[in-house]
Amino acid sequence: MTTEQENALHCQARRCSEELKAAMRTKPKPNWNKVVPPILRKYHQIVEPLGISLIKFNSEIGRLNGRYGVEP
Description:
- The protein has 3 helices and no strands.
- It has 72 residues and is mostly helical.
- α1 (3-25) packs across α3.
């Protein structure tokens, strides 16, 4: 993966993560299955032409949030 592709992936993953957190903070707390998949699809469609799979995109969001692995 080129540096430009990595930067695009990080940027979109960061934006997606921020929107997911904001959506889940609303009161009353929404159902995860109704809120999260549409947001993930929206941001993944932007990086999909670069050859980035949905699983890789989800993994990057997890890494950015310290869920597993080492932060980039």
